[in-house]
Amino acid sequence: MDVLFSRDKKEQPEPVKARVTGKIPTWLQGILLRNGPGMHTVGKTRYNHWFDGLALLHSFTIRDGEVYYRSKYLRSDTYNANIEANRIVVSEFGTMAYPDPCKNIFSKAFSYLSHTIPEFTDNCLINIMKCGEDFYATTETNYFRKINPQTLETLEKVDYRKYVAVNLATAHPHYDAAGNVLNIGTAIVDKGKTKYVLFKIPATVPGEKSYYHSFGITESYIVFLEQPFNMDILKMATAYIRGTSWASCLAFHKEEKTYIHIIDRRTGKPVPTKFYTDPMVVFHHVNAYEEDSCLLFDVIAYEDSSLYESFYLANLNQNIKENFKFTSIPTLRRFAVPLCTDKNAEVGSNLIKLASTTARALKENDDQVYCQPEMLYEGVELPRINYAHNGKRYRYVFAAKVEWSPIPTKILKYDILTKSSLQWEEDDCWLAEPLFVPTPGAEDEDDGIILSVVISSDPQKPPFLLILDAKSFTEQARAYVDVEVHLDLHGMFIPDTDFDSGKQAPSQEVQDSASDCHVVSETRRA
To answer: Which residues lie within the region annotated Disordered (predicted)?
Structure first.
């Protein structure tokens, strides 16, 4: 187990032809581009956490029934500095590094002042973002890196702070119908206080804080959870001199509430009613939509922060299956929030009258509203949907199913309407996040295919790209590659229609778009 997680992977910059079994749909033409950690040791130094590893991009190019695989490390400033020094010299979230390991405590004290608001890494290992015609590797810091999706070449480094005042931003932005990028970030302001900033990048012209990894969006509203999984800004400011990681400044407070912020996209102002629910940790929003003056949103929620703890490399050992047990099972939960509250409603009354959900919103004495979710499905993570239904009423969730550990062993299609599910699994296989690709001209929400990268714990079984029919969840094809493939996090499918004929590298500068980046809303933490 630890070999699969912590062993450094070799890049494969030149395309390798895959061995295809089955039949790939003729319409499926494009690039599956994914991102995740690939290197956890540099020289004699080692990262502490799996999420800290150096970003390794990889892709499956699908054309005319053939598949080609390639991979390449993101040549970030972080990567270059570490490789040049032959050791880890740039800090990551779970690993604090020092450019000069011989510094004593007094030398570190002088360096401390420059780290009170840290200079974060540009090791963009989490996701892929599209902006206009260009593509970027992203993480949760203020940096993102432009890449060529066809060659995996690393291009410009972009700093959000040059265009909008944020120190951190999510790695899961949303896209509206016009292709504009919508994201949310955190700004560290005077005396360590924080505020949340919602901002938009146009597609055509480009004390404590709550941790968040994603957010929800509908046609008229943005949904943001302020969860009691908090970063202590004072501790973060002193982490460098204390020799501790930034992750050590993050703590879950089980006695606190989770606040639900609803922001009107038309006015940029929050809905005045204060909504809250029980303490929980959410990494991934699934979808959100409006129905009969209510806003419904679905998330994968935990009752504690044990997921992050489980990915420390020290915990990912050969005995994980025997030793690791979830203390909190990730659960698909549906919340319903009334957009217009009846001031005359009785205290304790349920403000949700929808027949489509059992989720409740209970009015309290102080005009707060306590939201109780409907529990839809237990043991799922890495959710994806047909993105054409993002922000709209929808029916299907495609996700990785997790059981004894956070490592997915099955992928799942869940029908929200009938509460039924379909699954795909194979012995000794670990599956990546399932991506839905719609059939051209499709009318049905589940008319398309599912792509998932599969790695086996059996060294005799090569990795492969799995292609399923999204309706029946039956296998259509698989493409085996005779090279090492790493476990990854997120990615996207880029259809050939997104590339101009003969175009090798997107040329539009993100600075053109980012210079027009503007704030949609600013919200102080509760």
So the answer is: 498-526
CA–CA distance, 483 with 40 (Å, rounded to integer): 19
- Residues 214-246 have pLDDT tens digits of 889 999 999 999 999 987 777 777 777 777 887
- Number of other CB atoms surrounding residue 499 within 10 Å: 16
DSSP code, position 8: P
**Distance separating alpha carbons of residues 490 and 87, to the nearest angstrom:** 27
Check: CB of residue 307 under 8 Å from CB of residue 263.
Answer: no
Alpha helices for 288-431 (secondary structure H): 306-310, 320-323
**Surface-to-core class of residue 26, CB atoms within 10 Å of its CB (0-12 exposed, 13-18 middle, 19+ buried):** exposed
- Say if CB 97 and CB 88 are below 8 A apart: yes
> Which residue has 């993100």 as its token pair?
510
Cα separation of 335 and 371, whole Å?
Answer: 7
CA angle (290, 274, 353) in 5-degree steps: 40
Tokens standing for residue 483: 């090279």
Q: What share of the chain is helix, strand, coil (3-state, %, to 5)?
A: 15, 45, 45
Q: 231-286: per-residue pLDDT in tens?
A: 777 777 777 777 788 788 888 999 999 999 999 999 989 999 999 999 999 999 99
Dihedral sign of CA atoms 241, 242, 244, 249 in order: negative
In angstroms, the CA 293 to CA 296 distance is 10
Q: Which residues of 169-202 are buried (b: 16+ CB within 10 A; e: fewer)?
A: bbbbbbbeeeebbbbbbbbbeeebebbbbbbbbb
Residue 490 marked ligand-binding: yes
The structure tokens listed for 391 are 């922000």
Strand partners, 201: 181
Q: Is 213 annotated as a binding residue?
A: yes
For the chain, the C-alpha Rg in angstroms (whole number) is 23
Rounded to an integer, what distance in angstroms lies between the CA atom of residue 103 and that of residue 97? 12
Q: Per the annotation, does 40 bind a ligand?
A: no
Q: Would you list the domain boundaries of the chain?
A: 4-499
Of 522, 438, 526, the residue nearest 187 (C-alpha): 522
Q: Answer yes or no: is 174 a known binding residue.
A: no
Separation between Cα atoms, residue 145 and residue 82, nearest integer Å:
17
